[in-house]
Write a structure and sequence with these properties.
Number of domains: 1
Number of helices: 2
Shape: elongated
Radius of gyration: 28 Å
Helix content: 40-55%
Strand content: 5-15%
Largest sheet: 2 strands, antiparallel
């Protein structure tokens, strides 16, 4: 075996193993983050009856804060009355939508 062929095979092992380890660690990190986000979404969707009641009716015993007032449906805007259109100004990193609410 020639000396040059032996050096390239050692170089492949020395460079290949760390790259393989980094790829495996990256895949593990992506899988963990996906699992974490998915579980957080499920946790948000699981509101108890008490939490729903507190949101709709408020909790006046908790204090004098706007967070504890009941949900007011008078301030709701129906989806049918909102019209989305293209932005009048556009930056390279931000795309804004203009909207119009009809009453």
């Amino acid at each position: 075996m020639a000396v040059g062929a032996r050096d390239t095979s050692n170089l492949r092992v020395v460079v290949g193993i760390p790259i393989l380890i980094l790829v495996v660690l990256l895949l593990i990190l992506v899988a963990y983050l996906y699992w974490k986000i998915r579980n957080k979404d499920r946790e948000i969707q699981k509101l108890t009856e008490d939490e729903i009641h507190e949101f709709t009716h408020g909790d006046p015993e908790s204090g004098n804060s706007a967070l504890f007032y009941p949900y007011n449906t008078d301030f709701e805007i129906p989806k049918s009355k909102i019209q989305f259109g293209k932005s009048k100004s556009q930056a390279s990193f931000l795309y804004k939508l203009s909207y119009l609410i009809t009453f």
